[in-house]
From TrEMBL:
Name of the protein this chain belongs to: dolichyl-phosphate beta-D-mannosyltransferase
Residue span(s) of domain Glycosyltransferase 2-like: 5-125
Family listed: Belongs to the glycosyltransferase 2 family.
Organism: Thraustotheca clavata
GO MF: dolichyl-phosphate beta-D-mannosyltransferase activity
Leading EC class: transferase
Coiled-coil boundaries: none
Keyword field: Glycosyltransferase, Transferase
Length: 174
């Protein structure tokens, strides 16, 4: 059976982490998906690690793996450290800050090595509650990404990505 690793980097996500884990668990159980959730915790000051540990005791060590890091080391190294724990055939990178909604991101039925999600659907679900400054920064970042890369993406700043594990490993380690 195909297994999915959901990689969730966290930093000060104590309040949102239980909801993200619940959504992932419910979605996977409803669809009969074999999954593990790898939480990469970047030494949060708000108790996120303790929340992750409590969630692990609730959902089990077979579904929740924790990588506790000693400092805030950034996303790329979080991906690398999470990949070290991942055992899935596919990797899904998911924000813990609720800017990506698990139910909105349907499992991709494709042979592609990478699928990139967007927060900019017709209802703009992923950017609800954003300040004007956050929206402006995101628009500028996307305009720069479009100008530099010209890849026909709607959302260069989205962290919701779905990878074949071999491709993700190759991408991260080169």
């Amino acid at each position: 059976m195909t297994k999915y690793t959901i990689l969730v980097p966290t930093w000060n996500e104590r309040e949102s982490l239980p909801l993200v884990v619940w959504f992932v668990h419910q979605t996977c159980v409803e669809r009969g998906v074999n999954y593990e959730l790898v939480i990469v915790e970047d030494n949060s000051s708000d108790g996120s690690l303790q929340v992750a540990q409590k969630l692990q005791s609730i959902y089990g060590r077979d579904h929740i793996l924790i990588v506790a890091r000693k400092a805030k080391l950034g996303l790329l190294s979080a991906y690398m450290d999470g990949l070290g724990k991942a055992t899935g055939d596919y990797i899904v990178v998911l924000n813990a800050n609720l800017t990506d909604h698990v139910r909105r991101n349907e499992q991709q039925k494709t042979q592609a090595d990478i699928v990139i999600g967007t927060r900019f659907g017709t209802d703009h679900f992923g950017i609800q509650g954003w300040s004007i400054t956050q929206r402006l920064i995101c628009c500028i970042e996307n305009a720069i990404g479009d100008f530099v890369f010209n890849l026909s993406l709607n959302d260069y700043t989205s962290n919701y990505r779905y990878f074949h594990t071999f491709f993700f490993n190759t991408l991260i380690n080169h």
